[in-house]
Design a protein that fits this description.
This protein has 92 residues and is α+β, with helices and mostly antiparallel strands. It has one helix at 59-89, and strands at 7-9, 14-17, 20-25, 28-29, 37-41, 44-52, 55-57. A hairpin with a 4-residue loop joins strand 1 (7-9) and strand 2 (14-17). The longest helix is centred in the last third of the chain and has 31 residues, at 59-89.
Length: 92
């Protein structure tokens, strides 16, 4: 039996196989704008799996965790901006 052909797009991290599409970031299944693993039959998706940083979760949990990730990123940007401003105002 022939092994399925796996194609990975290096620029996007998207890996496709016969009837399966997987999204990777840094080697882990991860996608923030939809399911990271999608299985197809006759061109229609029938199984969708939501993953963040290599962790599979139900869709509702995925949405909650994604909100936390976005909040963390926004706070991190504000914190780094405040530290940068403070360092610029510091007299040496």
């Amino acid at each position: 039996m022939n092994e399925p052909t796996i194609v990975t797009d290096a620029s996007t991290g998207i890996e496709s196989t016969l009837g399966i599409t997987k999204y990777y970031v840094n080697g882990a299944l991860h996608r923030e704008n939809g399911p990271a693993l999608i299985r197809y039959i006759d061109g229609k998706s029938f199984d969708k799996q939501w993953w963040l940083e290599g962790v599979r979760m139900p869709k509702d949990e995925f949405q909650k965790n994604l909100e936390k990730i976005y909040l963390y990123r926004a706070l991190n940007i504000k914190l780094h901006s405040a530290i940068s401003r403070k360092n610029k105002n510091k007299k040496i």
